[in-house]
Amino acid sequence: MSTRKAVVREDVARYARVSPAVVSYVLNKGPKRVRPETEARVLEAIKVLGYRPNAAARALKLHSQEILGLVLSAAGNALFVELANLIEDAAKAHGFAVISTNSRASAARERDHLRNLVNRQVDGILLASVEPEPDISDVTASGLPILLLGNAGSVESVPSVGADLEAGAYTAVRHLIDHGHERIGMISGPTTDVPDGREAGWSRALAEAGLPEGPLVPASPSRFSGYKAAKRLVASHGELSALFTSCDAQGVGALRAVHEAGLRIPDDIAIVSFDGSTEAEYTWPGLSTMRQPVEEMAKDAVAELLASKDGSYVPTHRRYDSRLQARGSCGCVDEDPLS
């Protein structure tokens, strides 16, 4: 049985009646420009012959795998799913593929993923960390570029992109205050040594309005944790009239807990969350939330990571404003009702 000979660059060149160098220019989009009609002949030859460039040889020549690593802290989080898809799109626009991993809220698993991506010699890593100040020593020791997602400015020497958490939380709580609420509790993130901007925004909004801080319950960023925290708050704080949750997943869980308690939303308890994931659109009532500009964040994150490969690059820390998407859970008419 005969084995079909692999098609090589020279075969494409002969078919298209060009030099092998021109085939390379077309495949690599440079360094020299190729006339449109010549490029069309090369692309037709590639299609007809079924030519597949040798990825390993290309990586050696370009000193690049053209692959980025992405480490998420919770891939089940609806916002992270959206962010991962947008990062993949942004990377593709630059000619890069993405390897996505999930630490499942484990710092140890996160470090394992980082080491594995370093060993795979990806071109850079985007990290949405479990921890506010992540251990990235393996990555920095390798010289590989890394960018933090959501940890804006937490590591001065590492570029980052993330929402302005304090400003967003302040806006959310001010909105609840404007609805007449005076006892506003919060379901925050897990307790850490690093102050949470969302908690600071909640506290500042209440202080400026001359209101006492409502009860605060720390919880992990999940539906079940939000559900348990809200059940605890509803059972022990009958005076509570509103809740601010640090993420949409917690907010979804809180909605269920309030419903189960036989309370009306928003008449008895209003809820506003933080993230702006698509998940918030499909609750009942619709979950009011602070929408992070994930499209812009994804594009900027990839661009910053690739720029940081330059030896003269100075790390930047980009913070983004969030926008209130008011829905039924806070007493507003949905701004973006489903049609």
From TrEMBL:
It holds the Pfam family LacI. The keyword NAD does not apply. Residues 10-62 form the HTH lacI-type domain. GO terms for molecular function: DNA-binding transcription factor activity; transcription cis-regulatory region binding. PROSITE patterns: HTH_LACI_2 (PS50932). Gene3D superfamilies: 3.40.50.2300, lambda repressor-like DNA-binding domains. The keyword Metal-binding does not apply. This is LacI family transcriptional regulator. Keywords: DNA-binding, Transcription, Transcription regulation. It comes from Jiangella asiatica. InterPro entries: HTH_LacI, LacI/GalR-like_sensor, Lambda_DNA-bd_dom_sf, Peripla_BP_I.
